[in-house]
Write a structure and sequence with these properties.
- The complex is a heterodimer of chains A (587) and B (690).
- By secondary structure, chain A is an alpha+beta fold.
- Chain A folds into three domains: 227 residues, no CATH class; 170 residues, no CATH class; 45 residues, no CATH class.
- Helices cover 31% and strands 21% of the residues of chain A.
- The relative contact order of chain A is 0.10.
- The N terminus of chain A is likely disordered.
- Chain B has 690 residues and is of the alpha+beta class.
- In chain B, a hairpin with a 7-residue loop joins β29 and β30.
- About 1% of the residues of chain B have low confidence.
- Classes of the chains: A alpha+beta (587), B alpha+beta (690).
- Chains A and B meet through α1, α5, α6, β15 and α11 of A and α3, β6 and α12 of B.
Chain lengths: 587, 690
């Protein structure tokens, strides 16, 4: 470069190049993990999270498909790793794995793999490459890690403190052997962990290329700028939300252990208008005996995601986002439990955190308001193995989504897990499951009338029926089965969900929202009903033609159109305007 | 040798390439007529014929590239279509499967994807197969009759049928389809197992639906095109470019219209492959940059890399995931397409970072320098300021204003960043280059392919300006800008052969796979290919075999090329070795696990006589520059007087060893100081790194 060109212009270009390259590295790592994974659950739609972090544990870049539940865990896990194994004891070719919920982890099956990245002449490490997915079975009391009724973290599977998977490029054989011997499906779990290593290795390779091209100091300078830039944008956006203190809360069915006890996440948000935000969860229930607790990294994931839903979405995701947040998670509560709390079902508390934030910020920004949503329903079935029939053990894990809450000026989408996987929607892909497991899916369809009535209607939950072709054991993990997702601003709640088993003799067992070790016999039908989203605004203010369209599309029954919306739909499916006006008038 | 015509209808321009009996290439570029694209085709063909001094009767081959299928799906302008599926799954398409990634995840107010078919046009049928194809619930004749009667009442123009596990046993779908055809003559009926016989009902259903929806429109369009061509004396049958770089008969294109979904993109990649073949290059990287997007793709040993995951209207993210849009399963050239073109807008975001694209100034208002009302700076404006484009009159009446370009860059980039105009222009140029490098990386390194083995072929209106700079980060040392670079996609149409891709999935451990059985599987695919191409035997076909393999328990495969002929144990073992190597390259880890063969794929190509572009004997010489102007290169750091050559005045053998600009009719080639340029026997510009 010659003196004729300003270094500022060079910087602008190089900065953009480096930012894109870092994001691409994380992105590529995430794609590699999914492509190499062995779990059907990952292959058929769940995504991997992948990130570049620096040597002091700052998030530098993460993959765009990162599962939001996993977002903060790699960052917190790296900090725990660095506390236990200082960088001075790391060497090129090392790869670490860990899953302790109290060392940045989530629960046993969410394994984080971290790989230090060294520069020329083995200097460093300067960065870390991280990947995380829900891996296949890792032991514990519940096949596949769907630990619905666990009462401590040890029941949820094998806990790995930060351990070496590779040391100087050589596999740490004893660790792999222990993992293999603690799994009901050793091939799958080893395959999944290898996929995590593959993703981290690809990321590390890309970052090594950047270190080589730009040098340690210049790259560091660009990373610092990138993080500062992100923080600037976060604060600019936060400063635009109307000043005030806003509150929100969300109540959970129960922890699945103490049936009569409800749990609440309580929040006060302060926005002083100076670009800062503080979120205080004081008043949240004490940690539960059951597995609904959200470890620190999970509470943080929920906070960051929900706050970002009210900011410019084009802000990059890196340490600058965290720098702009101030939060209080009371120790010993649902949002920051003490060990050895069970944390496998944290999705319930994390979504409650998000709902509380969305409630609070919807008050601040009514133009972006969202009513409460249904929740993802996760279930596992397992069978085979053992002495009874000698068939190979199998383990099916799958999920169905509830409806999203109604939004300002638009209805909630059906069967969409906005808070779970960032707007993932849809139904089980039947054929790959039937090809692998002894099940036959009989139907999947929207649950008519499950969306909360409102001027804007909540999204529908769905109803899936799965017939067992072999004996199996079932574990279910849900919420919103006792307390329905509430509506907002006059909108009504959505319908609660259900789990039930229909036996060939016509008898039906209703299951609790969290239940494990349920015996199913060949011929039984397992029914999943997911909850509908809450409505927004007065249902009587809903455009009658929208109600007519809902009746035509079987989203709303004619009876509900009359009783809940005051809209009379005639036998031909047309609006009866006179009767509607009369009905709405008398209400 | 008679005359071949390639006609590519794009969103803005219709490009025509005509190769005459002497191998001389004649081109025309006319504005696409949006209300009926056939008007533009007629005009373009007439212009090209007149330029060549020929009449329509001389045309022996007519190959068409069209965006009709995509347009019909995006504009929802297709046939009135009924969707039929297994009882219990009528809501399959309405509930859909969608993923939101990147920024979209933070938008809680997002509109849900529109269901691709109406509730009232969805029908459930009592029948059920298991995953092995065994019948669990019979499909009864009276039931068929009853459902078909209800479908007929809705007066559909097309019917799409997708039953669960039909990939394993198509009998139920076929019986139902036959009943539909018998009861509703003239209605276009599609069975999912006939268009995509693979597991995963959602994508199979959307593919069948897309076929049914587009088919009648495609059939009518192609029949009308044939009739219009007859009016101007062109009597040869119309052929259509498919998405994989092959050519289909009009009837095959109408019965399987989703095969044409990326017709235009495939034409460009085929052109790049054709150029590579003429130059004796085995491995080619295709780079096509137009007004709004840039497309990168790989052609290895003459074969374009293919993908089977395509979503119409989906947005490819940086990581090559199309997260939304309608899933269509069909072989498509593996393009990485990004929003980077001459019209891409440059702006400084709220955090003070310079961004380029994906938003575009489009044709209206266009770049600021066009003086058509655009005030936002674009890549073209930056290239003008840097001297890569000539100020003054461009073709078709557009005049490029340097003052307007500078003013736009000053106001929106240089000012906010506190830097000079030229630095700002160079920053825009570099950032868009960087984005395009990411696209090239996506189709090479991310697929485990080393780009250094490739020659980079750059075309499209803006491609030749940028292409040398894109080669540099990869260490690619040879770049070719084809003669007629501005209409290269149409050249690809002329170069393409009829071909089909057949495949069969059946998982087996490689170690126990029987070479004779594998050979027989490929032979059976060859028979199917013959039938599709209406041939008696495979003697005239060029067959390309691929096995997709993976480690047991995985769901994603990597393709391995296979030799032709009777396979031996050694061939299969060598394939396993190649798989391990490819896996290591793509995923960064090694495995000694056994390998499963999953899918057998055969591409059958029927080579046809194609005109060879005329080659002239090169006479090495150093041409005189027609003119000079001030051009900016990063290596120099300031604008410096640089020779400018006119492409059509250079003769084969011309050698340029200094930084230079070569101006063509519809494009401009930038030769940076670290490159040299020569004109080859076909007047292609070959750039070599020093």
């Amino acid at each position: 470069m010659t003196a004729a060109r300003s270094t500022q212009a060079d910087d602008a270009v190089t900065a953009e190049v480096v930012r894109n390259a870092l994001s691409m590295a994380a992105q590529e790592g995430g794609v590699v993990v999914v492509r190499a994974a062995h779990s059907t659950f990952i292959q058929e739609g769940a995504d991997a999270s992948a990130a570049v972090l620096d040597a002091v544990g700052r998030l530098v870049a993460q993959s765009t498909a990162t599962t939001l539940m996993h977002a903060a865990s790699l960052r917190e896990s790296l900090r725990a790793l660095l506390a236990e194994i200082p960088v001075t004891r790391m060497q090129p070719g090392d790869v670490f794995a860990q899953n302790d919920p109290f060392k940045g982890g989530i629960h046993a099956n969410d394994i984080a793999v971290l790989r230090p990245v060294f520069g020329a002449g083995a200097s460093g490490p300067h960065y870390f490459a991280g990947t995380i997915i829900h891996v296949a079975d890792l032991g514990g009391g519940y096949a596949g890690g769907v630990a619905a009724t666990a009462q401590d973290m040890f029941a949820e599977g094998l806990i790995l403190p930060p351990v070496h998977l590779y040391r100087g490029g050589e596999p740490e054989a004893v660790v792999w052997t222990i993992i293999e011997h603690n799994s009901r499906t050793p091939d799958k779990v080893v395959g999944d962990i290898r996929a995590l290593v593959a993703g981290a290795t690809i990321i590390a390779r890309r970052v090594e290329e950047l270190l080589e091209r730009y040098g340690v100091d210049a790259l560091q300078h660009h990373v610092d700028d990138y993080i500062a830039y992100t923080e600037t944008r976060m604060r600019a956006e936060l400063g635009q939300i109307p000043v005030g203190t806003y509150t929100g809360s969300f109540t959970i069915d129960s922890d699945g252990i103490e049936a009569d006890k409800t749990y609440e996440v309580t929040l006060a948000v302060q926005l002083p208008g100076d670009g800062t935000i503080s979120l205080d969860f004081t008043g949240t229930s004490a940690q539960a005996r059951g597995s609904i607790n959200a470890s620190y990294s999970q509470a943080l994931s929920g906070v960051l995601f929900a706050v970002r839903c009210f900011l410019d979405p084009s802000i990059p995701m890196n340490e600058g986002c965290y720098n702009a947040l101030d939060f209080t998670f009371p120790r010993g509560s649902l949002v920051n439990p003490n060990p050895p709390a069970a944390c496998g079902g944290r999705i319930v508390v994390v979504t409650a955190i998000m709902e509380a934030i969305v409630e609070a910020l919807s008050t601040a920004r009514p133009d972006r308001a969202v009513a409460s949503s249904g929740i993802v329903h996760l279930y596992g079935m397992s069978g085979g193995g053992g002495s009874s029939n000698g068939t190979a053990p199998w383990m099916l894990m799958a999920m169905d989504f509830g409806g999203l809450g109604a939004r300002a000026a638009c209805d909630g989408p059906d069967a969409t897990g906005a808070f779970v996987l960032g707007g993932r929607g849809g139904v089980l892909q039947v054929e790959p499951y039937e090809a692998q497991y002894p099940v036959m899916v009989e139907h999947t369809r929207p649950r008519c009338d499950s969306g909360g009535p409102g001027e804007w209607r909540g999204g529908l939950g769905i109803d899936t029926a799965i017939r067992l072709l072999a004996d199996a054991e079932l574990v279910v993990r849900g919420d919103r089965m006792i307390l329905a997702p509430p509506g907002r601003d006059g909108g009504a709640a959505g319908e609660v969900g259900y789990w039930r088993v229909e036996h060939p003799d016509g008898s039906v067992d209703e299951l609790a929202h969290r239940q494990s070790h349920v015996r199913l016999a060949a011929g039984d039908v397992f029914r999943i009903g997911t909850s509908g989203g809450g409505g927004l605004g007065d249902p009587l203010a809903r455009d009658p033609q929208f109600v007519v369209a809902d009746v035509r599309d079987r989203r709303v029954s004619r009876d509900a159109a009359r009783d809940r919306y005051g809209v009379i739909v005639d036998d031909r499916g047309e609006l009866d305007e006179v009767a509607t006006t009369r009905r709405r008038g008398v209400r | 040798m008679k005359v071949t015509l390639g006609v590519d209808v794009g969103g803005t321009f219709t490009d025509v390439v005509l190769i005459d009996p002497e191998g001389v290439i004649h081109v025309s570029k006319v504005v696409t007529s949006p209300e009926d694209p056939r008007d533009g085709v007629r005009h373009g063909v007439e212009v090209a014929l007149a330029a060549a001094g020929l009449d329509g009767a001389a045309v022996a081959r007519f190959v068409h590239g069209t965006t009709l299928a995509t347009n019909v799906l995006l504009e929802r302008a297709g046939a009135r279509t009924a969707f039929v599926t297994t009882r219990g799954f009528g809501d399959l398409l309405r509930l859909g499967r969608s993923t939101r990634i990147g920024e979209a995840r933070y938008d809680l107010l997002f509109p849900p994807p529109e269901p691709p078919v109406d509730e009232a046009m969805t029908f459930e049928v009592s029948e059920r197969l298991t995953a092995t194809g065994a019948v669990h619930t019979e499909l009864s004749a009276p039931h068929i009759g009853e459902v078909v009667a209800r479908i007929a009442e809705t007066q559909p123009e097309a019917v799409a049928i997708c039953f669960l596990h039909a990939y394993a046993n198509p009998a139920h779908e076929h019986r139902f389809a036959d009943a539909c055809r018998a009861a509703m003559p003239g209605v276009f009926v599609v069975a999912s197992a006939d268009v995509w016989p693979e597991m995963r009902e959602y994508e199979r259903a959307t593919t069948a639906l897309a076929c049914a929806y587009v088919g009648p429109v495609m059939a009518a369009y192609l029949a009308g095109l044939q009739a219009m061509l007859a009016e101007i004396g062109v009597a040869c049958p119309v052929q259509v470019m498919d998405s994989s770089g092959g050519v289909l008969s009009a009837s095959l294109a109408a019965s399987k219209p989703v095969a044409t979904i990326e017709s235009g993109g495939a034409a460009g990649v085929t052109a790049a492959g054709f150029i590579g073949q003429l130059l004796g290059e085995r491995h080619v990287l295709s780079f096509d940059m137009g007004g709004t997007t840039a497309k990168a793709a790989v052609v290895r040993a003459g074969e374009p890399s293919l993908t089977f995951d395509f979503r119409v209207g989906g947005h490819a993210s940086a990581g090559d995931r199309r997260a939304d849009g309608l899933a269509v399963k069909t072989p498509v050239v593996d393009l990485a397409e990004i929003g980077a073109g001459g019209g891409s807008l440059a702006w400084v975001d709220r955090g003070g970072a310079l961004q380029v694209g994906p938003r575009s100034a489009g044709a209206i208002p266009g770049p600021a320098c066009y003086g058509r009302g655009g005030t936002q700076p674009t890549v073209t404006d930056a290239n003008l300021v840097l001297g890569y484009l000539r100020p003054g009159e461009l073709s078709d009446g557009v005049t490029l204003s340097l003052a307007a370009a500078s003013a736009a860059i000053d106001a929106h980039v240089a000012g906010p960043l506190g830097i000079g105009t030229v630095d700002a222009a160079h920053a825009i140029h570099e950032i868009v280059n960087n984005n395009m490098v990411a696209a090239l990386r996506m189709v090479t390194i991310q697929r485990g392919i080393d780009p250094r083995d490739f020659v980079l072929v750059g075309f499209g209106g803006a491609g030749p300006i940028h292409v040398a700079r894109l080669a540099e980060p990869f260490g690619i040392r040879r770049v070719v800008v084809p003669w007629a670079a501005g209409v290269a996609s149409a050249l690809g149409l002329v170069a393409a052969d009829p071909s089909v891709i057949e495949h069969h999935s059946s998982v087996i451990a490689a170690a126990v796979a029987d070479p004779a059985t594998v050979t027989a599987t490929f032979d059976a695919l060859a028979e199917r290919a013959c039938a599709a191409l209406e041939l008696d035997d495979a003697a005239d076909l060029r067959l390309v075999r691929t096995i997709e393999a993976r480690y047991p328990g995985q769901a994603h495969q990597l393709p391995i090329d296979m030799p032709t002929g009777a396979l031996t144990r050694a061939d299969l073992d060598a394939a396993v070795d190649r798989f391990h190597a490819r896996y290591r390259e793509a995923y960064g880890i090694t495995s000694d696990a056994p390998v499963d063969f999953v899918t057998y794929r055969l591409r059958a190509v029927l080579p046809v006589d194609k005109p060879e572009p005329r080659r002239e004997v090169p006479e090495p010489y150093s041409p005189d520059a027609g003119s000079r102007r001030d051009v900016f290169f990063a290596e120099v750091g300031i604008h410096r007087s640089t020779p400018v050559y006119r492409w059509d005045e250079l003769r084969p053998g011309a050698s340029i060893t200094v930084a230079a600009i070569i101006e063509g009719a519809a494009t401009s080639i930038v030769v940076p100081p670290t490159w040299t340029a020569t004109l080859d026997t076909m007047r292609n510009v070959v750039l070599a790194a020093r």
